[in-house]
Amino acid sequence: MKLPAFQFxxxxxxxxxxxxxxxxxxxxxxxxxxxxMHESPxxxxxxxxxxxxxxxxxxxxxxxxxxxxxxxxATLIERGVTERDPGTGALINRRMIRDEENRAKNRxxxxxxxxxxxxxxxxxxxxxxxxxxxxxEMYPLPSSSSSSSSSSSIQKHSIKMECESIxxxxxxxxxxxxxxxxxAKALKVKPYSELLNTVNRYAEKVRKEGTEKQFIPHPRTWxxxxxxxxxxxxxxxxxxxxxxxxEEWWGxxxxxVKSREPAVDFEEPLEATDAxx
Length: 277
Description:
Layout: H1 10-15, H2 17-20, H3 24-39, E1 47-48, E2 51-52, H4 55-61, H5 66-78, E3 83-84, E4 91-92, H6 94-121, H7 135-138, H8 149-169, H9 176-186, H10 192-209, H11 219-224, H12 246-250
């Protein structure tokens, strides 16, 4: 990519002893050379194609007398401002070459970062866990000659949706990529419905207790430590009450006990008896 400009630091220019020792004429010629080096096929080297620019040609480009240019180049080399490239013999600028090398390294780092990010974001094809296996390897499809690529894609999409739904249920959203990998590992040992219910119970527990965000573990830590197996998160068994009649409780063949004495109705007053009789 051709850059429209190059970095120029006036402070460094003014502090460079070699540059400041030059005459105004030689300093101006050197600045013109820097502009040509920027336009060169290899930045920082005074090249024409893959070869060094001859001094006679360079003198014509700069509109200088060839002898005057040779004297200026000798002064630049003597003062340590420039030097000849051992491979091509071209005049070079060390600062410009060093900046170009750093720019190339940064481009390579940026390319690798983008490539890794695309790989991580593509959870449908490459969601890995700590044992270096993908989610689809942890949940292999049954081998069958009739299985097609469409069914495999559906299976991968289903696993991805399960991981994301569990992540969304967790009460703290941080470190999504690492959390998805940890959830995929947990799904290997616990069914999706049970794991989702456990996460919902934990979220409800956090809400009721009013736990602050900074005290809630990161989802990656919570799943990797197997916290979904904690005793306080296990479901409480429900007790069902069934109405049972006395006959069903005690049995239908119980004998009926009858009183030998007639029943007395205490609501009606007893008749007074005559003491004389």
